[in-house]
Amino acid sequence: MTEKVKVRIDGEVIAATPGQTILEVARANDKYIPALCYMEGLSAVGACRLCMVEVAGVARLLPACTTPVQEGLAVNTSSPQLQSYRKIALELLFAERNHVCAVCVSSGHCELQSLAQEHGITYIRYPYNFPKLAVDTTHPRFVLDQNRCILCSRCVRTCDEIEGAHVWDVSGRGIQSRLVSELKRPWGEATTCTSCGKCVQACPTGAMAEKGWGVEEMTKRPAVVSRLTSMREGQ
Amino acid sequence: MDKVKIGTCWLDGCSGCHMSLLDMDEAIVAVLGKADIVFGPLVDAQEWPEGVDVAVIEGAISSQDDLELAQTARARSKIVVALGDCAVTGNVPSMRNGIPTAKLIERVYVEGATADPQVPTDGVPALLKQAGPLQSAIKVDIHVPGCPPKPEGILFVLGELLEGRVPDLGSKLRFG
What we know:
The complex is a heterodimer. Chain A is an alpha+beta fold. Chain A is built from six helices and ten strands, in the order E-E-H-E-E-E-H-H-E-E-H-E-E-H-E-H. Chain A folds into two domains: 5-78, Ubiquitin-like (UB roll), CATH 3.10.20; 101-232, Alpha-Beta Plaits (2-Layer Sandwich), CATH 3.30.70.20. Chain A has helices at residues 22-28, 80-96, 111-118, 154-163, 198-202, 222-232; strands at 5-9, 12-16, 52-55, 62-63, 74-76, 135-136, 142-145, 168-171, 178-181, 208-210. In chain A, the strands form three sheets. Chain A has a five-stranded mixed sheet, with helices on one face. In chain A, strands 6-7-10 form a three-stranded antiparallel sheet. In chain A, a hairpin with a 6-residue loop joins strand 3 and strand 4. The two termini of chain A are 15 Å apart. Chain B is an alpha/beta fold. Chain B starts with a strand and ends in a 14-residue tail after the last helix. Chain B is 31% helix and 22% strand. In chain B, helix 2 runs parallel beside helix 6 (151-162). Chain B has a single domain, classed as Rossmann fold (3-Layer(aba) Sandwich), CATH 3.40.50.700.
């Protein structure tokens, strides 16, 4: 049996396995840290910055999803400063693209929308970017709406690490970053896509959806995707 | 004590937020016991009056008329409430923002018309380049999200304001 390490999360001493990240330890012990780009069963990339935590003795904030635990680590998961940074991160996601919840298939089941509500966001303090973005409807069963994409890359990692097809990538830099299928070929023409739909299930917003659903009708099952990894690992 | 003066209006919206306001059912009787609605779609007044306590504004700022009414309401009211997603985020009206206005009008009134296609000019205000949330044009004091906001949320906001408190919506309402 592996040696356990003792860590402190919000004051509570917890025994953790070396190699586990702060987020994994927190979630395994019913301690809530918000996250959007993290999904169980996928590699962690630290992209959304929502899981930032304060670690005693470290001057800067660290993403809980990519920081491994070590003996004596003491973490604070929800100070007023962290709450204010998380609000900013969420608001910037809303300001960057066109998240029109009122006409979205995922409204009511959207991780971005519910995190905004949870953080008491009633409006966005920053000017909206209102970019002109494409909707790819070329796939016979699925649709990709760039207006609602937050670039969490859960679809990219799901397709690469679980399905093994690697249809998706993020192209461009900064605010010009776009999710692309098969080096910018329309999704419907992507020859590597197996049409398994796991990317759709992994997507936290309405950016990827099954065709045929109306507003508020599309529910996702990311846990089904996560389970594939744990089954392969024999857990 | 004098009654609180409430003014309401809808700019680029669908009137759904006003429907939700009325949807608080009998609770509106208690509100009207403490407040008078001095301007709005259900009131005869032609001009936003001076000395309004609470302005409740639905809809995005999309046209020159929207902008002017919002500015008048702001100048003549103590507190401005942005009611609903169009006023709070731009929402559906802002979905046209990537399209140049001339092209948009042409598409709707000429290409999209089955009879008598022409761009309307008489009695219609000029469209602004983009439709935006209320706060892109005027200072907003309270934001009430939702499409439409739930009647209980609107009632909570009005109730708090009528009691002289600043409403803290916390996590009561969401976008959409």
